[in-house]
Design a protein that fits this description.
rod-shaped; alpha+beta; 78 residues; 2 strands; two-stranded antiparallel sheet; 3 helices
Length: 78
């Protein structure tokens, strides 16, 4: 997923790479930069970040409880 980051005063590629958990070499490639390039505050950097993982749905409380009751309910059959 493409994301834009606006460079702030004092930013470095290393700090940005750590913040977004991407390699510096990827930041350089995505933005056609060299390792000697200066970052100018206010300029945009393009980052290609992975899509956030979907969190699994929590079971519905009523359904979960009814299933649990079935498991622990004592068998009253003769």
């Amino acid at each position: 997923m493409e994301h834009e980051y606006i460079i702030q005063n004092g930013d470095s590629l290393w700090e940005i790479s750590k913040q977004f958990n991407v390699p510096v070499k990827d930041l350089l490639t995505w933005n056609n930069l060299k390792s000697s390039s200066l970052l100018k505050p206010g300029k945009k950097l393009v980052l290609h970040l992975p899509r956030p993982a979907k969190t699994p749905k929590k079971p519905e409380p009523k359904k979960f409880l009814s299933e649990l009751e079935q498991l622990v309910k004592p068998n009253t059959s003769p």
